[in-house]
Design brief:
Structural class: alpha/beta
Shape: globular
Strand order of the largest sheet: 7-11-10-9-8-12-13
Strand content: 5-15%
Helix content: 25-40%
Number of strands: 13
Distance between the termini: 53 Å
Largest sheet: 7 strands, mixed
Low-confidence stretches: none
Radius of gyration: 25 Å
Length: 624
């Protein structure tokens, strides 16, 4: 029998009463109904047998094991006397869709998933709080946006962790270039087959490099949404499962104390996350995701000027793939102390707001006091030394040590006559061998213009007369939001990184990059070609000048000549103003209507520099 009361029957919504009927129908003990209810949301994908073998594959390792985190958190909620509910919205793999029409759904998916998660939260009206469990490039930002948009509730983010690196194999970033390297005779077919099979050292977790997945985990913890030392935990390990259990206990405590997510997500926590992003050298995709999280929470969205200010003030102090100089896998960053270790150094520089509240229920400052003296910190640093022969202070460095080892600040925002609204380059990841002794990357080269990624990668793989040559500047257009949903072009940046001549080739595009991209690659060029941007007027043979000052974080990308004469940037601006757009500008033929709608809505709402969000008031104002 349901434990009904006259008061409940008279005054509760029929949905609450029928909910108890459903709970009993699913097998929950009727006498336990009426307890506090909490919702677990996840990006889980695939079907695993009890022993971990696949029944139906997931899209990627990042959502393959997170069901174990769901189970651990749910069991802990039950032990705390609560009723757990679970809901799911799985996510795609950006690596799997590289170079395919599937990439046109990647960034728009983030907004769709955030909407679904928020709808799932609202569709369980009786719950008291939410745990969000996610790992990878779009699912994790979507989860953070959803939690931020439900900030009247207590909530905890559980990052899904990372894959272990392969023994005697390539990492999951490098292995994505085996096609280009084989085409140029740098590797054999047997080598490609073997390395392609060995890249994932464990079956779960995000990739081993500090791409968008890992950077999103770092940012989630820096925002205060995750417990201290949660980001980058090795998937499947006991320390990873323990995080889920502790997160469940934290949620119950937040509810008991009346602490809501709006008490945690503030302008100060957004700023802290931007600072930690810079210190790690994180993915440029977070320039899209952090403003989107701020918008969902009703906070001020950081601007380009805010990003410039942060990156000029904050040193990069983490040596991690793909940035180097050595390029440790992400699990070593976790063992070296992860986010709290980085924050200790930033605190000493006076860069953090230590009064920001976190889901631990205490302030960031108190969390760092605990971390600095914790047994956990000492134990993991020693384990890293014993197991990998790596010193923790060589992974997460002091600012002085980082400077001595040549680590430079993270991101530069070049402008110029080809990017009047701005662009972005992960300047810390330009190959040092092509940077002048004063720390400035300078290049003038002929443009090779492509309106499709397929044509560009074909030219990069080619060994014929149409091949990309040393010194070329690849200009890839019509790949922004209006053209492709702002696809990632990692197959191009990966090929350029690992081909012998690639470091002497630059890329300028209105598309975006994977978080693991490196090299002289300038993306997010605005306005995009299909929105009237001057990049849509570049012709083959035009001379493109790129200047990136990696120390001062200033840069430019300009048309400075054509195949007949050299010009200055100002004269190049005049020439571009007089030219007509190219006649071959067009959206991709495979662009889905769903993505076209997303592109139109985000354009009204502030575009890429505003986080590619939906600003409902602006959309209504524009459309009515």
């Amino acid at each position: 029998m349901l434990p009904l009361t006259e008061e409940f029957l008279r005054h509760a919504p029929s949905g609450d009463i029928f909910g108890w009927t459903q709970n009993a129908g699913m097998g929950w003990k009727p006498e336990e109904l009426g307890r506090r209810e909490f919702l677990l949301l996840s990006t889980q994908g695939g079907l695993r047998a009890a022993d971990g073998t696949p029944i139906a594959l997931g899209y990627h390792t990042g959502h393959w094991e997170v069901g174990l985190l769901m189970k651990a958190a749910a069991e802990e909620l039950r032990a705390q006397g609560a009723i757990p509910f679970a809901g799911y919205c799985t996510d795609p793999c950006d690596g799997r869709t590289q170079g395919t029409p599937g990439m046109m759904d990647s960034l728009p998916y983030r907004n769709d998933a955030a909407v679904i998660f928020r709808r799932l939260i609202r569709s369980l009206p009786t719950h008291r709080g939410v745990i969000g469990i996610a790992t990878c490039d779009k699912g994790l930002p979507a989860m953070m946006m959803a939690l931020a948009g439900s900030n009247h509730l207590p909530a905890v983010l559980v990052p899904g962790g990372v894959t272990l690196p392969a023994q005697d194999g390539e990492d999951a970033g490098r292995v994505q270039s085996i096609g280009a390297r084989f085409a140029h005779g740098q590797i054999s077919l047997d080598y490609a087959a073997e390395m392609g099979c060995r890249a994932c050292g464990s079956p779960g977790g995000g990739c081993q490099f500090l791409g968008t997945a890992a950077t999103s985990q770092v940012v989630g913890e820096a925002l205060g949404l995750s417990l201290p030392h949660s980001a980058l935990a090795p998937s499947g390990q006991s320390i990873w499962l323990d995080m889920a259990r502790r997160s469940a206990r934290a949620l119950v405590q937040l509810d008991a104390r009346g602490i809501k997510l709006r008490d945690i997500l503030t302008d100060a926590s957004i700023r802290n996350a931007m600072i930690v992003h810079a210190a790690f050298g994180g993915s440029t995709n977070l320039l899209l995701h952090i403003p989107a999280i701020a918008h969902a929470a009703g906070l001020r969205r950081p601007t380009v000027d805010d990003w410039i200010d942060v990156n000029r003030r904050v040193p990069r102090i983490v040596d991690v793939l793909p940035n180097g100089p050595i390029g440790h896998p992400t699990v070593r960053v976790f063992m070296a102390g992860g986010v709290p270790e980085v924050m200790l150094h930033l605190r000493r520089l006076g860069l953090l707001d230590e009064g920001a509240l976190t889901v631990s229920g205490t302030t960031l400052g108190k969390n760092l006091d605990w971390w600095e003296k914790s047994e956990r910190r000492l134990r993991l640093r020693e384990a890293l030394k014993m197991q990998d022969r790596v010193i923790a202070d060589d992974v997460v460095m002091s600012p002085d040590r980082a400077r001595e080892r040549g680590l430079t600040p993270t991101v530069t925002f070049p402008r110029g006559n080809l990017a009047p609204e701005g662009s972005v380059i992960k300047s810390t990841a330009i190959d040092p061998s092509v940077v002048d002794s004063d720390g400035v990357y300078r290049k003038v080269g002929p443009a090779r213009v492509f309106t499709s990624e397929r044509a560009a990668i074909a030219a990069i793989k080619s060994t014929g007369t149409d091949r990309i040559r040393r010194g070329d500047v690849v200009v890839l257009i019509c790949r922004g939001p209006l053209g492709t949903g702002m696809e990632e072009v990692f197959q191009i940046t990966a090929a350029l990184r690992y081909l012998s001549f690639g470091k002497e080739v630059a890329l300028v595009t209105d598309a975006r990059f994977s978080g693991v991209s490196t090299g002289a690659c300038i993306g997010h060029v605005g306005p995009e070609a299909l929105n009237g941007g001057p990049i849509g007027k570049v012709r083959d043979g035009d001379r493109i000048q790129i200047i990136i000052d990696r120390g001062r974080l200033i840069g430019s990308v300009d048309l400075v000549g054509d195949d007949e004469r050299m010009l200055g940037p100002e004269e190049g601006k005049r020439v571009l103003a007089e030219r007509l757009p190219r006649t071959d500008l067009a959206p991709d033929a495979n662009l889905p209507d769903d993505t076209r709608l997303w592109a139109a809505l985000q354009r009204i709402s502030g575009g890429t520099w505003g986080g590619c969000v939906y600003d409902v008031e602006k959309i209504i104002e524009k459309c009515l």
